Amino acid sequence: MSDTVSRAPVMQDVARLAGVSHQTVSRVINGASSIRPETRDRVLQAIERLGYRPNTAARALVSGRSGTIGIITTASTLFGPTSVHRTVNTAAREAGFFASSVSLAEMTREGFDAAVDHLDRLAVEGIVVIAGHDEALEVARSRSARLPFVIVEGDLTRARRTVGVDNVAGARLATRHLIDLGHVEVAHVTGPLDWAEARARAEGWRAEMVAAGHRPMEPVAGDWSAESGYRAGLELAEKPDVTAVFAANDQMAIGVLRALHEAGRAVPDDVSVVGFDDVPEAEYLIPPLTTVRQDFSAIGREAIAMLTAAISGETDQVPSLIDPQLIVRASTAPPGRTRSSTT
Description:
Layout lengths: L10 H8 L3 H8 L7 H14 L4 H9 L4 E7 L4 H16 L3 E7 L4 H13 L5 E4 L3 H9 L6 E4 L9 E4 L1 H14 L5 E5 L5 H16 L8 E2 L4 H12 L6 E4 L2 H13 L9 E3 L16 E3 L2 H16 L8 E3 L2 E3 L16
Parallel strand pairs: 1-2, 1-3, 3-4, 4-5, 5-11, 6-7, 6-8, 8-9
Antiparallel strand pairs: 10-12
Helix pairs in contact: 1-2, 1-3, 5-12, 8-9, 10-11
């Protein structure tokens, strides 16, 4: 059937397109918790395709509550953003909200504005933005006059309602671990520096090196991917003074591990490697990867708590930092434990 009708769409049109009863459509619109997530998604997609204006908007005008929040994120397969998205959804349900998500191919101003407009038509009470990009933060700040926004994993210094792991502290934990083992030349593979997390992790690495009286070398640029970590690892393998590498995420650390193996530099005997995130595969690598764990569940709960407070009218809010945890595994050891591969 056609996705459009010649008259203004009604609830029965939505039900027909979604393949559900009109009672189910009504329960979705009214925020019933008994609806399966996949059914709810089909109904909301049908509402969007038909341009149907549900009673949610009218109820919101009367009561000021719709029971729905919006989530804007990028269509990323990276472990961090996808984990945050999942935990924000879970925390929203536990708090009695339904979360309607918009995933953008890239975080442009035009795309972000369109996403906000879409969620506004669904009468959401507030929006969680999951993106570390600077552009997303600027757009969210410019659109926050009517709807409360919470930025997750963004630059925690540039907006009041922000939640994220303390990336500076996490990077310092990783770097301090390597320094305490006796490493002097600790290289850093950065994430893309238009991401706030990448800048914060580089800042933490540099600050800890300076605090220990070591001169930090020029970091090697990566883009969060294992491929970029592999390229960085090949470059660092040519530097015999480098005995430790701190990669800004686990995917890049995995690439570093392979590059060092191919270059004949054993981990951790010749070079120690630390990542960031603690992906599920980290403990099953050869060797198991030392990394910094982010508490994504805590991030999700805090984001929804902050948004709920903002919806209730609370204005005295400050950025919320979640403490990271260093997970020590077999990819780190004191330098020079053996030198069979380089002597």
